[in-house]
């Protein structure tokens, strides 16, 4: 039986917990102290709540981050330095180039999950044959952008048609929209980099889906991919497919 440590106890973490394969056991959850009683109650004491991953005196088969870019910055380096396998869903944390360097040099094994986008394997292959231009678009409902930096750029309550409210690099998008633009970072890290990848963020009052559009060109040719995913009911900022990507990482342990 493989044992997983989960960093996070929010909407995505709950979606992962509900879908864990039977051959994978949840051993530990890293969460803030106020959540510890709820964790003990939910799992009848079978899962240990932790305030820090290093409080674990065993070796998890996988440490799965389902929390935030802040959690990656806070715990990632120490987890990897122990030689553990860390899978990251909040890939936008690597927009901090110094943090990215520390994580990649810390040891252990670092896996960047695909999250809510497909085609990362195609990007990686295209990079070997001359990937030159990559553009990523994210189109979500006003509810999905509420509470984010988007509210400083556009009046979300007054939008009546699809509007682009941000254009820039993937690095800028990941920094400014830490809860909304991890896919931009994933695309960039799998392709031509955070500074060269161009990003457009859009609000669409007519949709209830999170639509991700990826266009890549180069010496290999070009490809265009669009994925229209449903957000988690408990968190409209997060695509269901992102949670399923984390579940898939657990399935691959067996």
From TrEMBL:
InterPro entries: Asp/hSer_DH_NAD-bd (IPR005106), Asp_DH (IPR002811), Asp_DH_prok (IPR020626), L-Asp_DH (IPR011182), NAD(P)-bd_dom_sf (IPR036291)
Entry EC no(s): 1.4.1.21
Enzyme class: oxidoreductase
Reaction(s) this enzyme catalyzes, per UniProt: L-aspartate + NADP(+) + H2O = oxaloacetate + NH4(+) + NADPH + H(+); L-aspartate + NAD(+) + H2O = oxaloacetate + NH4(+) + NADH + H(+)
Residue span, Aspartate dehydrogenase domain: 160-247
Family to which this protein belongs: Belongs to the L-aspartate dehydrogenase family.
Protein name: L-aspartate dehydrogenase
Organism this protein belongs to: Klebsiella michiganensis
């Amino acid at each position: 039986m493989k044992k997983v440590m989960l960093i996070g106890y929010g909407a995505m973490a709950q979606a992962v917990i509900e879908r864990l394969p039977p051959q994978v056991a949840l051993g530990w959850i890293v969460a803030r102290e106020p959540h510890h009683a709820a964790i003990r109650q939910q799992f009848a004491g079978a899962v240990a709540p932790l305030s820090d991953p290093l409080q674990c005196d065993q070796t998890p088969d996988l440490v799965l981050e389902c929390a935030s870019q802040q959690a990656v910055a806070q715990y990632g380096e120490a987890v990897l330095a122990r030689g553990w396998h860390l899978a990251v869903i909040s890939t936008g944390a690597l927009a901090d180039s110094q943090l990215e360097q520390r994580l990649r040099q810390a040891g252990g094994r670092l896996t960047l999950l695909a999250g809510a986008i497909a085609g990362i394997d195609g990007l990686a292959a295209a990079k070997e044959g001359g990937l030159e231009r990559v553009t990523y678009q994210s189109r979500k409902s006003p509810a999905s952008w509420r509470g984010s930096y988007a509210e400083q750029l556009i009046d979300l309550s007054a939008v009546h048609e699809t509007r682009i409210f941000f254009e820039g690099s993937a690095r800028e998008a990941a920094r400014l929209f830490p809860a909304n633009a991890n896919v931009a970072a994933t695309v960039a890290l799998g392709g031509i980099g955070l500074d060269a990848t161009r990003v457009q963020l859009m609000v669409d009052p007519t949709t209830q889906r999170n639509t991700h559009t990826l266009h890549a060109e180069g010496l290999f040719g070009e490809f265009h991919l669009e994925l229209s995913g449903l957000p988690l009911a408990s968190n409209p900022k997060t695509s269901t497919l992102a949670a399923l990507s984390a579940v898939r990482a657990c399935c691959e342990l067996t």
